[in-house]
Amino acid sequence: MQINPDFSLAAHNTLALAAQARAFARVESLDELRQARVWARAEGLGILPLGEGSNVVFAGDVDALVMQLASRGRQLLDSDDTTHCLRVAAGENWHAFVTWAVGQGYSGLANLALIPGTVGAAPIQNIGAYGVELEQFVEAVQVVHLDSGVEQTLSAADCGFAYRDSIFKRELTDVVVTAVDFRLPLKAPAQARYPSLAVYLEAQGITEPGGMDVYNAVVAIRGARLPDPATDPNAGSFFKNPVVAESVAKALAGQYSGMPTYPAGEGRIKIPAAWLIEQAGWKGEQRNGVGVHPGHALVLVNYGANSGARLLELARAIQLSVQERFGVALEMEPRVYGEVQGAAQGAGQ
Ligand SMILES: Cc1cc2nc3c(=O)[nH]c(=O)nc-3n(C[C@H](O)[C@H](O)[C@H](O)COP(=O)(O)OP(=O)(O)OC[C@H]3O[C@@H](n4cnc5c(N)ncnc54)[C@H](O)[C@@H]3O)c2cc1C
């Protein structure tokens, strides 16, 4: 394992933001992870775990050892009549794993196809798409505590999963995920109720979709809809969909008749952040080399500024205008690292 000092992170985040890490190490095994940890402690440096950089904003240089998880492997842990439990290494590519799993008949994961990133990062924000969330399939998460080096198995309940959230974004930020154990049903019924998915399948004349149908549909819809980071550097949805009290949603719906709403549990309503941003006039807006994608109001794009600070200025301006117009707070989805003008930025976004 090599430790690279003063390492450029531009190729290691899908927003292509310019930032230098004090040091960078690509770790492929638990042994290498331990070595990198010991090195960082000796140097007095913190550690920032990184996967494929598809959900981070580098606001500036990162004064830490950036540890990219690159471990590989899948292992069958146990099985019963209806499920298999698989341990998958943190550095495996998420979409490659889903593709393999659906091909093997573990069809439940089909809705989560084509989400960028690694298996190890998937529990951090409990990735979700097309009506399915990761937590439905997690049996346990294997972690190493960065302060003590102690290894621990966390049950799914320990992980405190919620909408785009988990304990790893709150109380337990000082761990690195080394593997995820998935409990995969052998005959999961296809989950095809999500509106755009159902419409697509119907248009294809598929009335009783199987896992592979859902997988193909999700790949086709996402491929057509979402801006590709290779041409429009972005981090996917930049804001979470806000969840508000039913009374607040009713009052807003009275004022804005076209406002879409979705039930989000007892007395709670989810409002699409994209709708709020578009109504506030931001769709397609560009300033200082960053902007809001013209086809997708939730996606902020680096149009050449290469600056996390510029991107965060735009994000804050959007948050402010949505707050002023609708009284609704937008929370950022990606996590922010690095220093802007000498001020350290934390991870708790
Ligand atoms: C075009 C596009 C579309 C997207 N669509 C979706 C979507 O539909 N649904 C969705 O939920 N997300 C979506 N995302 C967000 C992103 O794909 C996920 O959050 C993904 O899980 C991030 O994986 P990563 O390996 O790139 O993580 P990174 O961006 O490298 O890291 C993200 C966070 O996790 C931490 N982290 C990474 N690996 C580890 C580890 N092994 N142990 C501990 N902490 C770790 C990092 O420190 C950081 O805080 C999208 C992103 C893009 C660019």
UniProtKB/TrEMBL annotation:
Q: Does the keyword Cell membrane apply?
A: no
What protein name applies here? UDP-N-acetylenolpyruvoylglucosamine reductase
Which co-factor is required?
Answer: FAD
**A biological-process GO annotation:** regulation of cell shape
Q: Which residues form the FAD-binding PCMH-type domain?
A: 17-187
Biological function: Cell wall formation.
EC numbers on record: 1.3.1.98
Pathway stated in the Swiss-Prot or TrEMBL entry: Cell wall biogenesis; peptidoglycan biosynthesis
State the family it belongs to: Belongs to the MurB family.
- Write down the top EC class of this protein: oxidoreductase
Q: Does the keyword Ribonucleoprotein apply?
A: no
Q: What's a GO cellular component annotated to this UniProt protein?
A: cytosol
Q: Which species is listed as the source?
A: Parahaliea maris
Q: Which reaction does it catalyse?
A: UDP-N-acetyl-alpha-D-muramate + NADP(+) = UDP-N-acetyl-3-O-(1-carboxyvinyl)-alpha-D-glucosamine + NADPH + H(+)
Q: What is its main location?
A: cytoplasm
Which GO terms fall under molecular function for this chain's record? FAD binding; UDP-N-acetylmuramate dehydrogenase activity
Q: Keywords of this protein's UniProt record, alphabetized?
A: Cell cycle, Cell division, Cell shape, Cell wall biogenesis/degradation, Cytoplasm, FAD, Flavoprotein, NADP, Oxidoreductase, Peptidoglycan synthesis
InterPro entries attached here?
FAD-bd_PCMH, FAD-bd_PCMH-like_sf, FAD-bd_PCMH_sub1, FAD-bd_PCMH_sub2, MurB, MurB_C, MurB_C_sf, Oxid_FAD_bind_N
What residues make up the catalytic site?
R164, S237, E333
Signal peptide start and end residues: none
Q: According to its UniProt record, where is this protein located?
A: Cytoplasm
